[in-house]
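Subject: Interface between my chains keeps coming out wrong

I've been trying for a while to get a sensible model of this assembly. When I model each chain on its own everything looks fine, but I need the whole thing in one frame so I can look at the contacts. Pasting all components below, labels as-is. Any help appreciated, I'm running out of ideas.
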Amino acid sequence: MPALEFRDVAYVLSNGQPLLSGLNLQVMTGETLVLLGRSGSGKTTTLKLINRLLVPSRGEVLVNGAPTAGCDVIRLRRSIGYVIQDVALFPHFTVEKNIGLVPQIEGWTKERVRGRVAEMLRLVGLDAELASRYPHQLSGGQRQRVGVARALAADPAILLMDEPFGALDALSRDQLQREFLSLQRRLHKTVVFVTHDLREALRLGSRIALMDAGRLVTVLPPEEFVRSNDPLAAAYVHAFADGLDSLSNRGAR
Amino acid sequence: MNLFHFFAENHEQILELTLEHLWLVGLSTLLAVLVGIPLGILSAHWPVWNRPVLGTASVIQTIPSLALFGFLLPVPWLGERADRLAILALTLYALLPVIRNTYTGIRGVDPAVIEVGRGMGLTGRQLLLQVELPLALSVILSGVRIAVVVSVGLATIAAAIGAGGLGEFIFRGLAMVNNQLILAGAIPAAVLALTADFGLGQLEKRLRPR
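Reply #2:
Try treating it as a single job with all components included. I did that and got this:
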């Protein structure tokens, strides 16, 4: 059974503008599905339909086989981790409170929350002494790690990540991508990862779902994606290869 | 008799009227906070309420204070005691800055923080109490500070309907053309306003999110 399933899902704004149409997609348990596409292609809309930050105009979204329409939306969201590009840590909470918020409102004891926070900090490679710091006292990379730790704190089986490394410098992004892979090897979460960067998609994804103008173009594993005949997929691969060529040409000069 | 001697000789009465003044301002501000913050939240979360709520509070502000006291005098129960009437009038005046700043403070919270809070499964109440209000607190407090400073000045006019407070010295001084009496009301009122402004300003700075 897929962990997530979209059945003929459409999303239309109140002014009638369609953002997503005819989406049929399955995400298997434990895989990292990357939603790849340009701005406005419907990637973030797709992600928000999973945790019901947006409600489908047509069709249904199923989480672990159950339609999200009928379930308790608060319980649904607490069972799904959510990380966005802006990280959006709560600026008035310490790192510890940020990470421990969902476990705390879920009624965990103080000791259990504290233990979990320490465990999460270790997991994302952060020093335990950062627990008492406020978000403005952290670097961009540290904030993003806290964002991931916060999303994982209540041990959700599904993780939604919306361009989580998009705002970081190239080196930090590279390091966090490596850490993500190592984390995913250990945790086997079902991850839906949004990006517009093919390199990131090829590196992190078990499969890549290419989106364009609110439609799903194709879903392929990375090794098949680079050989795809689909014009848009090929355009992405060409643009990526051109970038590599110009880099090696400069190196040869 | 110079001003210093006047203050020394009448310190008990000055203290009594200052306390009366504080009572009028304190209670009316408390009521304005209790009514204004929920109205501000209502306007921020449901835009349909924004215009009627802020519009009504703005219209109240435009009514001259003496006229408002006059309008409220014939109202049963309220007109029986001048302090009741003064507290209601001062509350109505204090509402606008409290409502407006609550609205502005909540609308000013980073939408990404709200989105993540919702995405993490916080209920509307948890989001309001744990995220929106704490992050809007310094802006709300700034509204309360404006309300207090305005109320300290307006409360002097409450003496015109017999509600007491430092305005009694001022009105007596005006009637007797006695500057010392006017200053005996005006100086403590100014000190109250400046102290409240400074104290709440400091608190506001400490609560400002980083």
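Reply #3:
Confirming on my end. The CA atoms of residues 7 and 184 of chain B lie 7 Å apart.
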